[in-house]
Each structure stands twice: as C-alpha cells, then as structure tokens.
UniProtKB/TrEMBL annotation:
Family in the record: Belongs to the universal stress protein A family.
Coiled-coil regions listed: none
Boundaries of every UspA domain copy: 156-281
Organism: Cupriavidus basilensis
Record Gene3D superfamilies: 3.40.50.12370
UniProt-recorded name of the protein: Universal stress protein UspA-related nucleotide-binding protein
Database matches in InterPro entries: Universal_stress_UspA, UspA
Domain of life: Bacteria
Pfam short name (any one): Usp
Length: 283
C-alpha cells in the first residue's frame, strides 16, 4: 500500500503550513495527491418566523465563513506550491463540523494528517476532540503532527507494540513508512502504576519473534526495546522514544464508549497530546 491520497486538516493554527509541507512530502514519495480540507462549521438556519433580520445575519455569518475558506484555499495553494510543485492537490471547503468533515473525506484517503492535540488537559474530557473522533471513526490511519514539524525523514521508526488488534492494524498501515526506515525499534512498555494495565508484550512465547519475522518478510529489520517503570504507560513510551531518538512513532489507538461517544483511552490520549514527533495511529 502506498499513500496515494493524503488528506490534510487545514486550520488557523500556527502549525498548518508545516503540516501541509509534511503531507506534500508524503504524497510525493508515492506520486500521490493531497486533499486539503477546510471545515467552516455548521451553518445555522434561522428559525421559521424569526424575521428578515435573523436571515440577514445568518447569511452574513455564512459569507464570513466562506471568506475564511477562500483565505485558507489561497494559503494552501501557496504552501503546496512551495513544498512540492509537482504534486497534485485539491482544496475542499465543507460547511459542517470539522470532525465530521474529516471523517467523511478521510474514509476515501490512505492517511489523514492532523494537528496534534494541544498540551495537557485542564479539565477531564468527556467527549472526543477532533483528532480522537477522526481516529476512532474514519477507519483509516491518522498521522498526528506536532507544531513546528515540517518533515518526516523516517530514519528511525519506533513501534509501540502490545500484541493487540489496534497495534497490529497500525503496523500494517505503517508498512510503507517502515520500509523507508534505516532503523525500526519495537518498544514494549510495562507499568507498575496502580490500576493501569501493562502495555507490553503478551505473555506468549515468541511474541516479539512473530512480529520480527513478519516485518522481515516485508524487508524490514527490527530490534526489541523493553521499558518498565512506575510511570503511566504513555509516559514510559514517550520517554523511550526520546531516548531512542526516533522520528516517528507507530501506535494503536484505543477507545471506549462514554456518554454515547467513543473517546480515546489514557495511553492513546497521552501520545496524542505530548509526543514531540509525528505519531501514526490506527484504530
């Protein structure tokens, strides 16, 4: 599988141009196409009987959103022209919720490039935020890009491996990038933190050997790196990645139901918020 269609989230955040540059490079490696998505948000229609004034302001708000979309289109064209002049691209302005727009468009893409979630949570999150919603509902791998990251060299790729379905899906989706890597390290993290399950190798003989052999048949050589400690699993994985000086982390994205909506688990959310390098996740 190659990344022939790369979908990228466009927004007003400072990292948008860097994210587009990375998406363009990703598509260029596969002679692919980049689709930039600008979601203007839900268009609110005036209530019946609200009067002409309500309709006027609703239309004014709509025009402002479309003007913002036109500005985003111009910025996207500039960024693509600078990043990869020979790569084809399309800009889509969608008058709907950001998460919904990215999910619908992302289902016909090979990978969805998203902005990383902002820093630590100030309050507990009860509903999924945009990257979480896209990860859990699109059925495609997502690539979370921290602000300031413009390139994806894939010199050293780390895999967070626990033998689970999500991790297996992430490895399969990452094969094109793993083949590019000069080094691949499979990271197993075991935590003694109270009440937290181990995110490490299943207690099955040859668990890592099976993954190693599978990757080897794809032409990918891997080594094992096990870490354990009293910190939470997400933090252990991030510390291991920094120690290894990896430039990409591949990880399964785990979720569970809460208030009728899927939200990510603690380890997944930690990786989504605090990774200093791009993270390829699959659910």
């Amino acid at each position: 599988m190659y990344f022939k269609t790369v979908l990228v989230e466009l927004g007003a955040d400072p990292g948008c141009a860097d994210r587009v540059n990375l998406a363009a490079e990703l598509a260029q490696r596969s002679a692919g196409h980049v689709i930039g998505v600008t979601a203007t948000g839900m268009r609110l229609e005036p209530f019946r009987g609200a009067g002409d004034e309500a309709g006027y302001y609703a239309e004014l708000a709509r025009r402002q959103l479309l003007a913002q979309g036109a500005e985003a289109s111009a910025a996207f064209h500039r960024a693509m022209s600078e990043a990869a002049p020979g790569v084809g691209f399309t800009h889509r302005i969608i008058e709907d919720d950001v998460g919904w727009a990215l999910v619908q468009q992302g289902r016909v893409a090979d990978v969805v490039v998203l902005a990383r979630l902002p820093g630590p949570e100030s309050i507990p999150v009860l509903v999924a935020q945009t990257p979480e919603y896209v990860l859990l509902n699109t059925g495609r791998p997502v690539l979370l890009v921290p602000p300031g990251v413009r390139h994806l060299p894939c010199e050293h790729v780390a895999i967070a491996w626990d033998g689970g379905r999500e991790a297996a899906r992430a490895v399969a989706d990452a094969i094109p990038l793993l083949r590019l890597a000069k080094r691949v390290t499979v990271v197993s993290a075991s935590s003694t933190h109270d009440g937290e399950a181990t995110h490490g190798m299943p207690d099955v003989p040859g668990a890592h050997a099976g993954l190693r052999d599978h990757l080897a048949r794809q032409g990918i050589t891997s080594v094992m790196h096990a870490v354990q400690g009293s910190h939470r699993v997400g933090q252990l994985l991030l510390e291991a990645v920094r120690h290894l000086q990896a430039d990409l982390l591949v990880a399964g994205g785990y979720g569970h139901a809460r208030l009728r909506e899927l939200v990510t688990g603690g380890t997944t959310r930690t990786l989504m918020r605090h990774a200093d390098i791009p993270v390829l996740m699959s659910h």
